[in-house]
Amino acid sequence: MESGQGIPKGGVKKIILTGSGGTFREMSLEDMKKEDPEVLRKRSTTHPNWDMGAKITVDSSTMMNKGLEVIEAHWLYGVDYDDIEVVIHPQSIVHSAVECQDTAILMQTGWPDMRLPILYALSHPSRVPADLPNPRDGRNFDDWWIGDGKDGKLTFGKPDLEKYPCIRLAYRAGRIGGTMPAILSAANEQAVELLLTKARASLVSLRCL
What we know:
Blueprint: E1 12-19, H1 29-34, H2 37-43, H3 54-62, H4 64-77, E2 84-88, E3 94-100, E4 105-109, H5 115-123, H6 141-146, H7 165-176, H8 180-196, H9 203-207
Parallel strand pairs: 1-2
Antiparallel strand pairs: 1-3, 3-4
C-alpha cells in the first residue's frame, strides 16, 4: 500500500472505517421487527449527525455506505479485505483511521461536515484556511473537547451484522470480485429508490437492501 501523511511506504497495517450506525443505532433488531414498516421507512431518511440527502441517509441507516467504502478502500489502496475494518462510532468525530505496523493508530477527526473532505479533495496536498463552523449548533470544536453540551467522549464498537447485513454483503461481493460489486451497488440503488418512492415500504426492503 502506498502511504502518505507522514506514514512511510509499507507502514500501514489496517484501514479502519467509522460509521455512526445511522438512525437505527439505538434500536434493537427485535424492536425493528415489531415496529410499523411505515415508521421505519420514514425514520430511515433521517440521520442523527449528518445532512446528506435522502439516498445517502438511507444507506447510512442500513450501513450500506460503509460496505461500499470497504470495496472502495480495497481498490483505491490495494488493501486486502481482511485488513479493512468497520466500526460504529456514534459521535461522528473520528471519520477514519489507519493502524500502523507498530500498532499505532492515526485518526482523522473533525465535525460531521462534508465541506471539509470536499475542500481537502480539491486542495490536496495543501491545507487551505477555511471557516467551517459546526452546521448543527454553531459550537466551536474546542467546546466539544471540554464537554459543553456533550460528555466529550469518543466511543467505538463492532457493528451487529445481523442488524446491518449490508456490511456482510459488501465484503462478500468484494471478495467474489468481477462485476459483483457493481451488481451489489445497482441492487442497492433500486432498493433505496423503492423505499423512497413508497413502492414497497416493508421491513424486508429496509433490512435487505
